[in-house]
Amino acid sequence: MSETTAARAVLLRTTDETTPVRIAESVLADSGSEMSLPEFLQWFAERLATDGSVIEKIPLRDLKGWRTDPDTGNLVHDSGKFFVVEGLSVRIEGAAVPAWTQPIINQPEIGILGILVKEFNGVLHCLMQAKMEPGNCNTLQLSPTVQATKSNYTRVHKGAPVPYLDYFTDTDRNHVLADVLQSEQGSWYYRKRNRNIIVETTDDVELLDGFCWLTIGQLHHLFEIDNLVNMDSRTVLSCLPFSGDRLTDAFSAAAGAVRLDVLRSCSDDEGSLHTTGEILSWITGARTRHDVTTQRIPLDQVEHWVRTDERISHESGLFFNVVGVDTVAGNREVRSWTQPMIEPTDVGVVAFLAKPINGVLHVLVNARVEPGYLDVVELGPTVQGMPSNYAALPDAARPPFLDEVLDAPAERVRFETVLSEEGGRFFNAQTRYTVVEVDLDVPPELADDYRWMTLHQLVSLLRHGHYVNVQARSLIACLHSTFGASNWDEG
Length: 491
Fold this sequence. Notes:
Blueprint: H1 3-27, H2 37-50, E1 54-58, E2 66-68, E3 75-77, E4 84-92, E5 99-106, E6 111-120, E7 123-132, E8 140-143, E9 146-148, H3 150-153, H4 166-169, E10 175-183, E11 193-200, E12 211-215, H5 216-222, H6 231-238, H7 247-250, H8 260-266, H9 276-289, E13 292-297, E14 305-307, E15 312-314, E16 320-328, E17 336-344, E18 348-357, E19 360-369, E20 377-380, E21 383-385, H10 402-406, E22 413-420, E23 430-437, E24 450-454, H11 455-461, H12 470-480
Parallel strand pairs: 6-11, 18-23
Antiparallel strand pairs: 1-16, 2-3, 3-4, 4-5, 4-13, 6-7, 6-9, 7-8, 7-12, 10-11, 14-15, 15-16, 16-17, 18-19, 18-21, 19-20, 19-24, 22-23
Helix pairs in contact: 1-5, 6-12
């Protein structure tokens, strides 16, 4: 190893070892060097007022640049890029619903979800953008620095280049804090992955229109506002290496400003109910135990779904619809387009049950099977689903612990906000994200499917792809937002 390479290795090791403390300091920084929260809210309101985007649902027959393949019925783009809406046949041995067919989005290309971070006055700030997506219920939401499919950033649409893209495609000159391929919704996407990446720079970064610098703590406070921080921001923020040794000691002086059970849950040296080795063995056993068979089929072969010129819907009226959307964008790389989108029929519920064990917060995770996963099982929240759907399903399909979430008294709710799913493919998809503190044990009959885990164990798994699903990643980011003990004042 050359002297230069050795010096760089020492520098990077030192940086990586101090990163969890720097992240925690940014979490506790309620006031940013570049913008206060009241200033941000005013800035965002002005962006919203002047955006000028017009979005409306249209019949599938009126989509432009899209066609129905005459041999399969699949909805495909004329370029052959972007994505395809096709059919999927699913068989899960032993499940409450052992077999079904459904429409699903197949988007094999890997997009980039990237957040650029930089220190201002010794505190990490994240470069975020106010971004319009056609599926957003409120038009604009707070997005990562870069949020782009491969078709978009390679400019298949012949639109403008994606700002700040070079920081994430050429990382050699900057410090990479996280870089991992993560899955997307396994019930609506077929084996979809995106690159979740966080890059720290010391460059002088030009602040473009529509972008702002916020501390992690400011972002966490914004989680409390419905439908403000988008799904892509949440999944990237969850990948921050917010765990390390002796975090409790590092912040002992700030004991009144942090929730100690959350701090201990983020500390690698604090105890956990199960070792990481036991957790990994449990996941491997779950992937071995579940027999899942999926097969892509023509869209016109899905059963119990009704297709008209207007949309595609399940005959029960539940689950989701496939609809057309027409977008005239006020501030995007392309000014107008149409596309098919998935439209859920109701608001979903995603929840962690949580409890302190020996003073360390643990959350109850579920070894969850979804047909679109690449590797059979990923760790999901305790509860994940759309309650209204269970009216059309067998009683055994109703998730365990759903009633504990729906009936939770207010004093037991640690976090609760309605947040949107990805607005580029899902139309008005909203989910109630919640964390409920409980005092219960997992019944023996459910022991194969659930485990209590700490936040530092989940963060360690997030360094690798296909372990923690996108809904759980959002909840991990939400739980990190409870690290600070005080509420904020919008001013």
